[in-house]
Write a structure and sequence with these properties.
The protein contains 22 helices and 17 strands. The protein is an alpha+beta fold. Strands 2-1-3-15-6 form a five-stranded mixed beta sheet. α1 packs antiparallel against α9 and α1 runs antiparallel to α19. The chain is globular.
Length: 544
């Protein structure tokens, strides 16, 4: 697998480049500055900007001769809903209506109620055509696929999404179940690391910035937490808060923290599970599937969180926290948090927090099925226009106009371009710009212009990191959880009941013991046996 990712991207760029030569001449203006950049990523964006003119060409002529298709795309907002969402939707439809004969309605849902609203849509059979699934919970790819809520899009991709298949390549294995494709993983930087994210202004004021930037142990981080807590000026800040809304202070899915040194970590593959209950060594040396929560490594992480909570470093109401950590930093309530992120984390967290943040890498995970299925574009079974959905999705993965529009908004209104890098308009910032989202959600991150603070060749750097990354020996394995759906439901309820307090350090050891006992009583052994059986069969089919 190592080395294939770069080849896949180069092949995708060549496809897009060849299509650009005969594409539509109308552009939004993004392409000129991208083409002027010496960076390969922005050059690729410029070359592919007109790819939508021939995306899904097999069906476009027929589609253009009929009534305009109307589709709805539903996805996460990653923050408050932008004021100019409708303006960006109108600009998007100038492209899609003229080139694809498709009208797109952009439905952006806030994180706090995303899963609930998606569940309501599915239970009421509400028509919507594209859905980007969440990393975990009921609106995750794995959960929705196992609940038969997603369409098999294999044939649709063959007919209308060849550019998607050429772009994503081998990573399509991550969303393939029993030979059928149920979604398309976002083509983005997939090398995920865990970072400690801290307020730069607090560190500077306490004379701890250099110490933070160079820290390599948990002891050093704890010393910084202690200094903040002891400070008369900053002691009102909670030392850390949960990165999500379910009490996860240490978002370590895929890795175990070492005793003290950041270098002493170990990793595990979750085999596509989003509940953190499954673990296996990703290097393929031991094919035994185990209960993650029973491992010594996981228990040691609990003990560290318990110690930090008892010392007063954790936000007191962490288990009932209603805002994500970044939002709490922004509201001047929290000093730091842990974040699982990709390259470019500094810019992303500063945008999220609304202030300069110092990000220190702790752990890097191998690329795995779980990595790929964090954000997946799918066609719900309630879709009325699945063909149009895939045709538009094909444009999302190949057209830099669409990629930059969805990420940064309208050039000249929401952002400007200097030397191949996008910036806020003069006089605007993250708090005043009326449309600014993220670069990793909309299909192909490598077509999006780097943002202020990132170099013009940032996409090349990200691809180089991907090419050098470790890849799990089990990439492509997907467990059909149908035979154990009842057990998974029961175990998921137990995890939802106990894990927020365990992952935040609130739980006692007695609570932890009760958690393990209740997992066993809910069918955990049957889940492990089913995963093991299917993995053994998959390995045999792979010739291992």
């Amino acid at each position: 697998m190592k080395g294939k990712l770069t080849a896949l991207l180069m092949a995708a760029c060549l496809v897009a480049s060849s299509m650009a030569a005969c594409g539509n001449s109308e552009t939004s203006g993004n392409d000129a500055p991208a083409a002027d950049s010496a960076a390969g990523d922005t050059a690729a964006a410029g070359e592919s900007s007109d790819a939508a003119g021939e995306s899904g060409a097999a069906g476009d002529d027929a589609a253009m001769s009929g009534d305009m298709a109307e589709i709805k795309m539903t996805y996460l907002s990653m923050g408050p809903l932008p004021a100019d969402l409708q303006l960006v939707e109108d600009e998007l439809n100038k492209i899609t209506e003229s080139e694809l004969n498709i009208h797109v309605t952009m439905e952006m849902l806030e994180p706090a109620n995303f899963a609930q609203q998606v569940n309501l849509k599915m239970s009421s059979a509400e028509p919507f055509d594209l859905l980007c699934t969440m990393p975990s919970g009921t609106a995750s790819f794995n959960n929705m696929a196992s609940q038969n809520q997603l369409m098999d899009i294999t044939d649709l991709l063959d007919e209308y999404g060849q550019d998607i298949l050429n772009t994503v390549g081998d990573l399509m294995k991550s969303t393939t179940v029993n030979g059928s494709i149920y979604g398309v993983p976002t083509w983005r930087s997939l090398v995920t690391s865990t970072y400690v994210v801290m307020r730069t202004d607090v560190l500077e004021d306490l004379g701890l910035l250099e110490k933070a930037q160079n820290m390599t142990t948990l002891t050093e981080y704890e010393e910084i937490l202690a200094a903040v807590k002891a400070s008369d000026k900053w002691n009102y800040l909670a030392g850390m808060a949960a990165s999500d809304l379910v009490g996860t202070v240490l978002p370590m899915g895929g890795c175990y923290m070492g005793e003290d040194s950041f270098a002493d970590y170990t990793c595990y593959d979750q085999l596509g599970d989003t509940n953190k209950m499954i673990a296996i060594n990703p290097d393929g040396s031991d094919h035994t599937v185990v209960n993650n929560f029973k491992t010594e490594e996981y228990h040691k992480m609990y003990e560290k969180m318990k110690d930090w909570y008892d010392k007063g470093y954790v936000y007191g109401d962490v288990t009932t926290q209603t805002d994500k950590a970044g939002e709490m930093v922004k509201s001047n309530a929290v000093f730091s948090f842990f974040s699982q992120s990709e390259i470019g984390v500094e810019q992303a967290r500063e945008t999220e927090c609304g202030m300069p943040m110092t990000c220190v890498k702790m752990i890097t995970m191998p690329i795995s099925t779980s990595t790929c299925t964090k954000f997946v574009w799918t066609v719900p079974t309630t879709s009325k226009e699945p063909e149009a959905a895939i045709r538009f999705l094909n444009m999302m993965y190949t057209d830099s106009r669409v990629a930059n529009l969805l990420a940064w908004g309208i050039e000249g209104t929401h952002y400007q371009v200097k030397d191949g890098v996008a910036y806020f308009m003069d006089g605007q910032d993250a708090n005043t710009c009326t449309y600014h989202t993220c670069d990793f959600l909309y299909g192909n991150q490598f077509l999006v212009l780097p943002w202020d603070g990132q170099p013009a060749d940032f996409r090349d750097q990200a691809m180089a990191e991907m090419d050098a990354a470790e890849v799990s020996a089990y990439l492509g394995f997907a467990c059909d959880t149908t035979p154990i759906s009842n057990e998974i439901s029961a175990v998921s309820n137990v995890i939802a009941e106990f894990l927020p307090s365990i992952d935040s350090g609130v739980a006692t050891q007695e609570d932890y013991d009760a958690f393990l006992e209740k997992l066993d009583g809910s069918g955990m052994d049957k889940i492990l046996a089913e995963y093991q059986s299917q993995l053994d069969a998959w390995l045999e089919a792979q010739g291992q």
